[in-house]
Design goal:
- This protein is mainly α.
- About 70% of the residues lie in helices and about 0% in strands.
- The termini are far apart.
- The mean pLDDT is about 90.
C-alpha cells in the first residue's frame, strides 16, 4: 500500500511537499528504525521552518525567530520536542529514541505543528476574506489600519 506509513498517522495535507516527503520517508522506516525516523522528523521540522520563512540553517534559531513573530508557546514546545528528540537520535543523550512510542508521538506533534502554523491560519484567512467589504473596512478603521 502506498504510501507506506507503517503505524504513523497520515501527514497533515497542508504540509508543504518537501516536508511531507520527509515525513513519509520517516513513516516508512519508523518500525524498523525509530532512531532514523526521529532524525528524519527533526529534518522535517528544519525544512518546515524554512517553508515558514526562516533561514532553514539553524533550527534552534529558526524556532526562536518564529517565537518572536508570535508563535504560540505550545507550538514552540512541540517544535522543540521534535528538535531535541531528533538531535538525540544522531547525538545520543538521555532520550530513548529507540522507543517506537516516542517516535509515534513525534509524528503526532509534526501534524499538530502543521495544524497551528498552516492549516488553521489558512482556514481563518479564507473565512475572514469572505466577510463583506464593508465589515472589513469597519474592522480596519477600528484597528487603525490605513
Amino acid at each position: 500500500m502506498y504510501p507506506d506509513t507503517g503505524t504513523a498517522p497520515q501527514p497533515n495535507p497542508d504540509l508543504p511537499a518537501p516536508v511531507k516527503e520527509t515525513y513519509l520517508e520517516a513513516a516508512s522506516i519508523a518500525l524498523k528504525s525509530p532512531r532514523g525516523a526521529a532524525a528524519l522528523l527533526r529534518l522535517a521540522i528544519q525544512v518546515l521552518c524554512k517553508e515558514l520563512g526562516e533561514g532553514g540553517e539553524k533550527i534552534n534559531k529558526d524556532i526562536g525567530e518564529l517565537v518572536k513573530k508570535g508563535l504560540p508557546e505550545r507550538v514552540q514546545q512541540a517544535l522543540d520536542i521534535v528538535r531535541v528528540t531528533g538531535n538525540n537520535a544522531v547525538h545520543p543523550g538521555q532520550i530513548d529514541v529507540d522507543d517506537p512510542d516516542v517516535v509515534a508521538r513525534l509524528f503526532e506533534l509534526l501534524n499538530v505543528i502543521a495544524e497551528y502554523c498552516i492549516s488553521m491560519p489558512n482556514r481563518i484567512g479564507n473565512l475572514y476574506s469572505a466577510l463583506p467589504q464593508t465589515a472589513l473596512e469597519q474592522i480596519q478603521k477600528r484597528d487603525g489600519a490605513p
